[in-house]
Design goal:
Strand content: 5-15%
Structural class: alpha+beta
Distance between the termini: 55 Å
Radius of gyration: 30 Å
Helix content: 40-55%
Mean pLDDT: 87
CATH class of the largest domain: Mainly Alpha
Strand order of the largest sheet: 1-3-2
Low-confidence stretches: 109-118, 471-480, 621-630
CATH superfamily of the largest domain: Hypothetical protein af1432
CATH architecture of the largest domain: Orthogonal Bundle
Number of domains: 4
């Protein structure tokens, strides 16, 4: 519950004691709804760093003419506008009860115009978008435990261990997406009132933007993209699915349906609309896989409209938060700008120009968000920015091996770290089956594994006693009793920078062939006591967001002279310097052992294998080279 400010008083040091004494006397006369423990008083001092003194009085200066002569410089000689006092005391009063009646009794009688509370929204000072104001219903959602959880999930996962500035979280990104979703929706409404965009439409779009990442697990994409795939192979699950499940849980747990009704939202149609904007069609897997794919392809014949929240006449609204057609959406607008800011990488895409030139046009009976033809270069810059961020940061060779190590630690600790849910305790990988447990799962699991409690270590030993098949053997040198400790050791290696070492990388069109050949090689005798489990190979795909396709082929443009006519713009008409390929696959190889002898043996073995592989598979392509570390 939000603690509400009652008032504040400026007081000198001498008056502070008197103010507090008077306040204690006032607390003795409270009404029946309030008690002294319902209030908090904070005494704050603001100064120039040297209490009541002018810190400049303790400095010496020199002049150009006498650089070796130190003199003091009275402030009167600097300016007559400088302060005469250098310290102030402020006493702030707070009420812990935030319901309206309690606050009425807590506040001193003042004129209504002086005490008018601004409950029509809150203003955030965002480092990317500046001051932005959000709708009060969005504030209600933000002020829930399920949304506040996003404060503790790193936006870029393991990249924070490579880029020290990448400390931002899903919390601020989600607020930024909600803001931009409203900006784009309002811009379309202003420019094209004939679209019939309502205030309820805009509010739903903003809620979808705010809640689109509720389902992310620890370290964002590491959890669903690496850990769940490894721990629960074959289990189809992605964070968008968890986002709508957490959204449902958030609404129910915080009784927000009543708030939605007050803002004239339909609890059936609008709730479905919000979830569809996050996940896509909700009916069946067929609708998710086939309906959206067909809808993205304007060359295919008309297919049944897969959405229920809004009709086909407002199809463009589904392109604002998560664009299934071509990938241009406000989610990318925010994370491009925010990630580049925190990574220290230049962002060449200007989302403001896109919002300014965005326009809805009809394409084969369906309304799509189109953009002015002269913005084609800006669009290609956007997709190149995506590729560049993946190459420089998201899939940086050190970022990915750190995330692979973190995944190894999560797998080992899986059954030893539990979270209380609606039907008992759930492990790290089981928490996705229960939203009460899942919403307790954050990046804090890193510290829980790194510094396990004595109780958790004892429970790990009990697990061994109840599962004798986990006993140590030659085939299973790791037992349940030390798995939690082993997981902690992996994380300690990350902290101390004792990372798995990079051996090389191979660009290839057929990664399965390369990895299969490498697996066959690892079955042979290895040098210097190396074992197959000492090696790691990771496959990466770098593209423009639509695998091998050019995403701009799925975008329609309009011209200044004919703003209502949509057309495609072949890349040859934009520039001859644009890429001809839009996807590349890379396999990277690592060694877990880092001692000098083992690492040299691993490097030599990898080099010999790759030379032999080149001879067998030489085809004259770029697959005949691989990167090396020094």
């Amino acid at each position: 519950m939000r603690t509400s400010s009652v008032c504040r008083l400026l007081a000198t040091a001498a008056a502070t004691w008197a103010v507090k004494q008077a306040w204690e006397a006032e607390l003795a006369q409270l009404n029946e709804r309030l008690e002294p423990e319902h209030f908090a008083v904070l005494d704050i001092t603001l100064d120039y760093g040297n209490k009541y003194k002018n810190p400049v009085d303790h400095m010496h200066f020199y002049s150009k003419e006498n650089p070796d002569v130190a003199v003091k410089f009275p402030k009167e000689k600097v300016s007559q506008l400088l302060p005469t006092n250098f310290s102030e005391r402020i006493i702030r009063f707070f009420c812990k009860k935030a319901d309206g009646k309690s606050l009425e009794g807590a506040k001193k009688p003042v004129k209504q115009s002086e005490r008018k509370d601004r409950d029509d929204g809150k203003v955030f000072n965002d480092p990317i978008h500046g001051h932005l104001e959000l709708h009060p219903l969005l504030i209600k959602i933000i002020d829930t435990p399920q949304f506040q959880r996003l404060r503790f999930i790193k936006q870029l996962g393991g990249a924070y261990f490579v880029y020290p500035g990448a400390s931002h979280n899903r919390f601020e990104h989600s607020i930024g997406v909600a803001h931009l979703a409203g900006e784009l929706a309002r811009a379309l409404k202003t420019q094209q009132p004939e679209l019939g965009i309502t205030d309820e439409d805009i509010l739903c779009v903003q809620i979808a933007g705010l809640c689109h990442d509720l389902g992310h697990g620890p370290f964002s994409h590491l959890y669903d993209g690496m850990f769940i795939k490894k721990q629960r192979p074959g289990f189809k699950w992605k964070h968008e699915e968890a986002s709508i499940e957490v959204f449902d849980y958030l609404m129910k747990d915080n009784d927000l349906e009543k708030e939605m009704k007050e803002w004239k939202l339909d609890l059936t149609k609008d709730l479905v609309f919000i979830k569809e904007m996050i996940y896509g069609p909700l009916d069946t897997e067929a609708a998710q896989d086939k309906g959206v794919e067909d809808m993205m392809d304007p060359e295919k014949k008309e297919t049944p409209w897969p959405y229920k929240g809004r009709g086909k006449e407002k199809s463009f609204l589904y392109e604002i938060v998560s664009n299934k057609r071509n990938g241009i959406d406000v989610d990318k607008f925010d994370y491009f700008a925010r990630d580049c800011h925190h990574l220290g990488i230049k962002n060449n895409f200007d989302y403001r120009r896109f919002i300014h030139f965005a326009r809805v046009c009809e394409v084969k009976g369906e309304k799509q968000i189109c953009v002015r033809d002269k913005e084609a270069d800006n669009i290609y810059n956007m997709f190149h920015t995506r590729y560049y961020l993946h190459k420089r940061a998201y899939q940086h060779k050190v970022t990915k091996i750190i995330e692979a190590m973190m995944t190894d630690a999560l797998v080992k600790a899986n059954k030893h770290i539990n979270f209380e849910g609606s039907k008992g305790k759930y492990t790290l990988s089981e928490a996705i089956d229960d939203m009460e447990a899942y919403t307790k799962l954050t990046d804090c699991v890193f510290e829980r594994i790194l510094y396990p409690s004595s109780n958790e270590l004892k429970e790990a030993e009990k697990t061994l006693e109840s599962n004798p098949e986990d006993l140590v053997s030659e085939q299973n040198p790791s037992s349940s009793s030390n798995e939690l400790k082993e997981a902690g050791q992996i994380l300690k290696r990350i902290i101390s920078r004792d990372l798995y070492r990079f051996l090389g990388e191979i660009p290839t069109k057929t990664p399965e062939d390369v990895t299969n050949a490498w697996k066959e090689e690892l079955k042979k005798p290895l040098p210097h006591e190396l074992k197959p489990e000492d090696f790691v190979d990771l496959v990466f795909v770098l593209d423009y967001g639509m695998k091998n396709e050019n995403p701009v082929d799925h975008i329609h443009f309009y011209s200044k002279g004919k703003p209502d006519e949509a057309f495609k713009l072949p890349k040859e008409e934009v520039s001859r310097l644009l890429p001809t390929n839009f996807s590349e696959k890379i396999i990277r190889f690592y060694c877990k052992k880092t001692d000098e002898t083992s690492l040299k043996a691993a490097n030599d073995h990898f080099d010999r294998w790759y030379k032999n592989y080149q001879k067998d598979r030489r085809d004259g392509t770029s697959e005949n080279s691989h990167g090396k570390t020094n």
